[in-house]
Fold:
Amino acid sequence: MENAKPVIEIDNLTFTYSTAEKPALRKVSLTIYEGEYVALLGLNGAGKTTLQLCLNGVIPHLVVGEKAGVIKIMGLDTEEYPPRELAKLIGLVFDNPEFQLSQMSVAEEIALGLENLGIPTEEMPGIITNALQAVGLSGFEERSPFELSGGQQQRLSIASALAMQPKILVMDEPTSNVDPIGKEEVFAVAAKLNKEKKITIIMAEHEVEVMAAFSDRIIVLNDGEVILNGTPVEVFTNVEMLEKIGLRVPQVTEMTHLLQKKHNLSLTGKYPVTIEQAEEMLGKRLA
Amino acid sequence: MTDPVIVCENLWHVYPGDILALQEANLTINAGEILGVIGQNGSGKTTLVKHFNGLLKPTRGKVLVKGVDTAGKRIQQLAKDVGYVFQNPNHQLFARTVEAELEFGPRNLGVPEKEVIERREKAIEFFNLQELRNHHPYRIGFPLRKLVGMASIYTMHPAVFILDEPTTGQDNVTTRTVYRLIHKLRDEGSTVVCVAHDMILLAEVVDRMIVLRDTRIIADATPREVFSNRELMQSTHLLPPQVTELSLRLKAEGKLPEIELSVNDMVAGIASHLAK
Structure:
């Protein structure tokens, strides 16, 4: 990623909610590059949502608290630009699509965000068609958002964010209320946007197996601090450290760790994080 | 010896507006069984299990709880035998403190006051709610609120425990409490019906799985049988846990003898296979 340009630069960010005693984020410094697919891991309360709200300027503009440090989105300091401006660069998708959906039809749902950005009405149909196509919901324009399945609702939320043509898409546990096929749909759409449109994805998730398969980089937050930051293999190799703070690693990683630790089995190379990696590692050994 | 606690005979359910949600469901759940119910959203899982405690009444067919037809029974009468933990705790919790929430169920069932308090304390300890006992349930975070929902059913000691998506929205710490709960219920001889998309959970805790697709029960088998049935898994858009999928692939290549359902079993399986 050395040649890629940074889209998010966070320097020494500390934020404390006005109602809280201790900071929700502490001395966070991160650089995220264009086109990266980044996963945020951490327990509930570790700071994942706070960090995401800092990215689109909701913090510090709309949430009261004490902020130190600098966040730049595509070079713009979030302190100086209101969320309304930042929304053109960065789209947010929440965990529960029902909280986001409010309109009578799928098309109106997407139009709402465009109206807020001041997009002329005559340009909207084209943008809506493209956004729905990108998430596999073409032809759903007149349907009620509330009749859609969980996976479809969440893809509609992504389409709404996408219609604003952001460079960065931030997703807060986008599949926590979605069935397995719906999860796959949401991850596949995010991966496609990432690959084809070079949209930078930042996704908070609990499902480590899925994150291992999809993301380029995993950032682990604990108690407001970044404690690990690297590729899935680099991060999940820290099995004991992650378990100590209450996080799980992919099943095949845990398996490898236990085989080495309990059975002194020397398995050469790095810990696997995906089925394919584990199959390759064990396939030779068990042959 | 089998001891049926819940029996569905040709159960159908049609929601108002002629929406068919469940058809021809035949099912017997025996005392002490740990049963997983899986299938896509909208396949009829929640509709099925809502009949077990009378939240829904059959449109056709019947449901017997401990041999008694639920048709003439009110939810309150069935609550003694069947506890239902909602997917969303907000549909369930209403008291002003966690303590009051845990006391409400058993007190309502006429459990003596001394025992109500004992049950409350045991639940607080088991679910690690010590610091939250005087909190309003709506002022604590979702994962812990969900544990309060489970604890408030646990204090009622129902013979049948229905869990609807118990690990959804939970992190790894609260998820472990759900595992402990199901193991504890098994040890206590309770019957557990767990509706879930979380295959890692089900693979580890259930003895039997029923699979729903498009309003019908299409399979009733052990987790091993369900996960090894590729056609069934694909047609219901389900995925086995990562370690189970790995064991399926290695077994197919003749490199492992068994299909494994948990990380620990997989580790033991590989170690013993290599020792040979």
User: Anything to note?
Assistant: Chain A has a mean pLDDT of 88. Residues 250-287 of chain A form one domain.
